Amino acid sequence: MSVTVYLIEFKRPIPGWINVHYCGATTNLPQRIAAHRAGGTSKMFAIARDWEIDFEVVATWEFEDEDDGWDAERWLKEQHDLPGFCPNCGGTRDFSRGRHKGAREKYAPILARERQQRWYYCELRRNGLDHEAARDISRGRERA
């Protein structure tokens, strides 16, 4: 199954958000863009919908190898330079020489730690602790 990495540019800034670009990856691009337009994929797209801020897909990259596609999305986000990949903004950067390969593995320990923290936080909340106490304990902080 092929993966499409896509770059979205909003027509104007979204209130409360610094960036006007968004990067994502999917196996079904038309369906994913429709979900973004409906505002159901993230808070950013919900606010854009509420403020009637339109967007367009300005670049796409196809990857036949599924792992390669997900790595490319992670690598693109880690660059913190989405305008550098946007043809409308004069971007000239690309995925040359496979620099994106292995990006998911690089972040695997961090993502696993975050999942563990979320699980621990949910367990603490289920056992009756308030939000601040559960958050501090799950992050390893001592409460006075």
Protein model, in words:
The protein is of the alpha+beta class and 144 residues long. It has two domains: 3-100, GIY-YIG endonuclease, CATH 3.40.1440; 104-138. Helix content is 44%, strand content 16%. Strands 2-1-3 form a three-stranded antiparallel sheet. Helix 4 (103-126) packs across helix 5. It is globular, with a radius of gyration of 18 Å.
What is shown here, in short?
This protein is of the alpha+beta class and 144 residues long. The protein is 44% helix and 16% strand.
Topology:
Elements: E1 3-10, E2 21-26, H1 29-38, H2 43-50, E3 55-63, H3 66-78, H4 103-126, H5 131-138
Antiparallel strand pairs: 1-2, 1-3
Helix pairs in contact: 4-5
**β-strand amount:** 15-25%
Distance between the termini: 52 Å
Report the structural category.
alpha+beta
Q: What's the β-strand tally? A: 3
Number of helices: 5
Topology-level CATH name of the largest domain: GIY-YIG endonuclease
- How many strands, what sense, and barrel or not for the largest sheet? 3 strands, antiparallel
Question: Keyphrases for this structure?
Answer:
3-stranded antiparallel β-sheet, GIY-YIG endonuclease, alpha+beta, 44% helix, 5 helices
